[in-house]
């Protein structure tokens, strides 16, 4: 007989956090002293008493960072200002990052698990034992591209940033990489051996994970500087640094086109249709079998699907479909990203892909401030966007 699932009690949730936090300390991922992040709950920490209303019981050990899990009153100690910024540019990049952050603690969890314990707020620890506000490879590898463009760099510069990420933990919140896809790792190994970067990507049909789609967003903001042909070549080559199969390239081209259209101020439907037209015009004759693979996207049928027809896996087609589905289902940035996360599966990447679209569409001011201010190394990300913005104008 199938076991009845039940929601976790607060005690069980807290125990899970404690064991995850202990692991993080043991593995040297975090130091106990930097665990105190919830300003709202700081008073409990100062009293050496972790009691809070949300958990509503006894005393928790001191190393629990975020006792009032899902605390809406979180106030950071240092606010970073985004006055007069380009709402859609910053909204897209930071929205992508926050989608990633929300998914990191629950990556690989099942849909059933997310139904019994839905993510409603930013969380800490979980899958990778990482502290509050930690972003993963989706953001790191996007920052590698943003940084390279900000330096007027070519494919070599992007490749060197990828190597620095994998080898030295650059472009990470903690100076240490904790998450990388197999195809991406193998491709970066080739870059290290001196292979021309755009030849490094894997090209077999089995190499169609979402690893290039999850880091392609920055190209949506540079599209205007190039002709249609040049841009297509650029997107193809940036995907092919790690993912060189046509299926991954089509996903990236579709996503960049749609994100660009949103960036130009078009509505969701218009942006979606311009991406469908772009891909169909370009690939219908040369890759009819790929058009079949993407038929639910290109026919808009994906929008009529029920949740149980949406597969939230790391396969590039599934991830694109899931992101489109949540983007159209939600009526705010928050609704879009939370429904992405609560599909379970490859939560951080689908959160990031959907979060990028939603961040552009709803703008930076459409993203909850407490989430923006919770992003680790937010000042670093802001500086990278500023350098990038100078170069794309
Ligand atoms: Mg990730």
Write the layout of secondary structure elements.
Blueprint: H1 10-26, H2 42-46, H3 87-103, H4 111-116, H5 137-150, H6 155-168, H7 182-192, H8 228-240, H9 246-263, H10 268-283, H11 288-293, H12 295-298, H13 316-329, H14 333-341, H15 347-362, H16 369-374, H17 378-392
Keywords:
393 residues; mainly alpha; ADP-ribosylglycohydrolase fold; 2 domains; 17 helices; binds magnesium ion
Q: How would you sum up this structure in a few lines?
A:
The protein is mostly helical and 393 residues long.
Explain what this protein looks like in three dimensions.
- The chain has 393 residues and is mainly alpha-helical.
- It has two domains: 19-65, no CATH class; 87-119 and 127-384, ADP-ribosylation/Crystallin J1 (ADP-ribosylglycohydrolase fold, Orthogonal Bundle), CATH 1.10.4080.10.
- 51% of the residues lie in helices and 0% in strands.
- The protein has helices at 10-26, 42-46, 87-103, 111-116, 137-150, 155-168, 182-192, 228-240, 246-263, 268-283, 288-293, 295-298, 316-329, 333-341, 347-362, 369-374, 378-392.
- Helix 3 (87-103) runs antiparallel to helix 17 (378-392), helix 6 (155-168) crosses helix 7 and helix 9 (246-263) packs antiparallel against helix 10 (268-283).
- The model is unreliable at 33-73 (pLDDT under 50).
- The site of magnesium ion (MG) has 6 residues, from helix 5 and helix 15.
């Amino acid at each position: 007989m199938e076991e009845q699932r039940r929601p976790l009690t607060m005690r069980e949730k807290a125990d899970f956090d404690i064991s995850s936090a202990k692991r993080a300390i043991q593995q040297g991922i975090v130091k106990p002293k930097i665990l105190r992040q919830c300003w709202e709950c700081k008073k409990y920490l100062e009293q050496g008493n972790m009691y809070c209303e949300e958990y509503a019981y006894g005393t928790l050990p001191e190393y629990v960072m975020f006792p009032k899990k899902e605390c809406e009153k979180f106030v950071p100690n240092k606010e970073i200002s985004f006055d007069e910024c380009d709402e859609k540019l910053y909204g897209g990049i930071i929205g992508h990052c926050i989608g990633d952050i929300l998914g990191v603690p629950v990556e690989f969890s099942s849909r059933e698990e997310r139904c019994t314990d839905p993510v409603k707020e930013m969380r800490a620890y979980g899958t990778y034992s990482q502290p509050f506000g930690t972003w993963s490879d989706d953001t790191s590898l996007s920052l590698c591209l943003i940084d390279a463009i900000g330096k007027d760099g070519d494919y070599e510069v992007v490749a060197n940033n990828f190597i620095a990420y994998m080898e030295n933990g650059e472009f990470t919140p903690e100076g240490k990489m904790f998450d990388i896809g197999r195809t991406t790792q193998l491709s970066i190994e080739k870059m290290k051996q001196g292979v021309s970067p755009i030849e490094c990507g894997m090209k077999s049909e089995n190499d169609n994970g979402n690893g290039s789609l999850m880091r392609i967003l920055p190209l949506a903001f540079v599209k205007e500087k190039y002709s249609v042909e040049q841009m297509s070549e650029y997107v193809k080559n940036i995907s092919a640094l790690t993912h060189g199969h046509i299926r991954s390239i089509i996903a990236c081209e579709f996503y960049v086109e749609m994100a660009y259209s949103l960036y130009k101020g078009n509505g969701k439907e218009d942006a979606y249709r311009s991406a469908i037209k772009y891909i169909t015009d370009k690939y219908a004759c040369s890759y009819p079998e790929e058009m079949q693979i993407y038929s639910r996207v290109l026919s808009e049928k994906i929008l009529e699907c029920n949740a149980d027809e949406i597969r939230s896996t790391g396969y590039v087609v599934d991830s694109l479909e899931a992101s489109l589905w949540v983007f159209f289902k939600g009526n705010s940035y928050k609704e879009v990203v939370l429904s992405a996360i609560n599909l379970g599966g490859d939560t951080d990447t689908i959160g990031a892909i959907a979060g990028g679209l939603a961040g552009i569409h709803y703008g930076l001011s459409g993203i909850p401030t407490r989430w923006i201010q919770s992003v680790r190394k937010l000042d670093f990300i802001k500086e990278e966007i500023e350098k990038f913005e100078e170069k794309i104008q």
